[in-house]
Amino acid sequence: MRTRDFLSRVEHDRIVQAIREAESKTSGEIRVFIQRGKMTVDPLVAAQKKFHQLRMHTKRERNAVLIFVAPRAHKFAVVGDKAIHEKCGNEFWQRLVDGMRSHFQNEKFSHALVEAIREIGKLLAAHFPKTSGNANELPDDVLEK
Fold first, then answer.
1. With b meaning 16 or more CB within 10 Å and e meaning fewer, what string describes 78-96?
2. What is the DSSP pairing of strand 29-34 with strand 142-144?
3. CATH, domain range 3-130+138-144
4. What is the mean pLDDT of residues 70-96?
5. DSSP for residue 42
6. Within 13 Å of residue 5, how many CA atoms lie on the same side as its CB?
7. Complete edge-to-edge strand list for the sheet that includes strand 64-70
8. How far is CA 57 from the centre of its chain?
């Protein structure tokens, strides 16, 4: 699928709202990145690289999560920082990815992202609840490049 077609079908406002709702209950951060153009590397490797380029690993509590989507390559990946991965293990990530894959295959792109954000938000809230000193360290917008 062309990235432009994918982006025209994604409800940006709905995704940003889901991020804000999820982050309102946690000190964690969630970002969504849409990769434009071709991608020749493994999506997980590309997502990990983008995670570092966006400086998400510099969050004080190491509890940021990146949802990386490459529509043209029909690939996606989810990367969680060290502290969140230690809390949830591989089973959570696999269940999350399986759910997203099902929605993507049915071309329910926004639903896939919103549902994943909500699940990530629940996990983050359970392990990293919001406190009075928590600030929103990263923007909530959907990134595209």
1. bbbbebbbeebeeebbeeb
2. parallel
3. 3.10.310.50
4. 92
5. -
6. 8
7. 75-80, 64-70, 29-34, 142-144
8. 14
Stretch 129-144: mean pLDDT: 77
- What gap in Å lies between CA 89 and CA 92, rounded to an integer? 6
DSSP state of 77: E
Q: What percent of the chain has pLDDT over 90?
A: 66
The DSSP letter of residue 105 is H
Is residue 38 classed as helix, strand or coil in its secondary structure? coil
Rg over alpha carbons for the chain, rounded to the nearest Å, is 14
Tell me which H or E stretch contains 32.
strand 29-34
- The residues that bridge with 76 in the sheet, in sequence order, are 69
Cα–Cα dist 130/110, whole Å: 26
Contact 84, 28 (CB under 8 A): yes
Distance CA 90, CA 117 (A): 17
Q: How many CB atoms lie within 10 A of CB 137?
A: 16
Q: Give residue limits of the domains in the chain.
A: 3-130+138-144
- Distance (Å, rounded) from C-alpha 40 to C-alpha 38? 7
